[in-house]
Every structure is written in C-alpha cells, then in structure tokens.
Specification:
Blueprint (H helix, E strand, L loop, with lengths): L1 H15 L6 H9 L5 E7 H10 L8 E5 L10 H10 L8 E4 L2 H9 L3 E5 L8 H4 L3 E3 L2 H12 L2
Parallel strand pairs: 1-2, 3-4, 4-5
Helix pairs in contact: 2-7
C-alpha cells in the first residue's frame, strides 16, 4: 500500500502543489537576511522536486526531507543536518519557520527560535503550538523580513 501511495503521489503532486500566499516574497526577503534551508516531513526527493518545480531551489543551501536524517521531526536531527549543510550553528538566532505544532517542537529540540506561520488551527491554535513568534501569513513574514533587511 505504501509503494502504491507514493507512486501516485510522485505521479501527481507537482500538478497540485501551491505555495502559501506570500511565501515566495518571504523567501526572497529572507535571502537578503540570512542563508536558508528547508526541512520537511515530506520525503526528501518529493521536497526537492517541489522546490525545483516552484523555482525555489536556488533559495536554499539545504533541503532536508523525511528519511534524509537519522530521525524525522519533531526530532532535532533534520534541522541540525540542514544547519550543518549551511555551516550555521544552532542557536536562538536561527529561525525555524513552520506551520504546525510539530514544527515548533522540532525548532525547540534543535535549540532554534520557533516561528509559526499561520494560526495552527489544525493543531489547536497558536497557544497550543506555543511559538516564540507568530506571523499570520507569508505576507506578514515578508514585511517583517524586509524590515530586518533594511536595518
């Protein structure tokens, strides 16, 4: 069943993948502030195919998906792997931006700042996710990153 599922996902996922509103602008703005990596619980090859399909692969010095590290999120291993690829030590100065409570857990496990994008309504809301910072959407994150880049 797993093989059939992933064969269908691989055959169709790029036709339906759509970025969150404001995500492209936020990625561009973030590139002016610091190096970027991407960490997902999507399988690594699927994650990298999506980044290439969206024209975003050039934004990332590291793209780590499920199965690439020794363990997957919420463990710190994939975030630490991406940071190692970027040559950046884990610290509170590193933002891990995600849209789930699991992402916030992974950020904390890695010693990074947990930044929530969206309202995490699927996880019980912002309070349940417990982020260090929260942005309503990609547009809000983009505006904040532009303000940092202009400093």
């Amino acid at each position: 069943a797993r093989d059939i599922f992933y064969a269908e996902v691989k055959a169709r996922h790029l036709a339906v993948v759509a970025p969150m509103p404001g995500a492209a602008a936020a990625l561009t703005a973030a590139g002016h502030v610091a190096p970027q990596g991407g960490v997902s619980n999507k399988q690594g090859p699927l994650l990298r195919a999506e980044a290439a399909h969206l024209g975003w692969a050039g934004h990332f010095g590291a793209l780590v998906g499920a199965g690439d590290a020794a363990r997957d999120k919420p463990d710190a291993a994939p975030i630490l792997m991406a940071l190692g690829m970027l040559g950046v030590p884990a610290s509170d100065a590193v933002w891990y931006v995600g849209d789930t409570a699991l992402d916030m857990q992974a950020a904390r496990a890695a010693g990074c700042r947990a930044v929530l994008l969206g309202d995490a309504s699927h996880d019980g809301g912002v309070a349940a996710a417990g982020p260090d910072m929260v942005f309503a959407d990609g547009h809000a994150l983009h505006a904040h990153l532009l303000s940092l880049a202009n400093r």
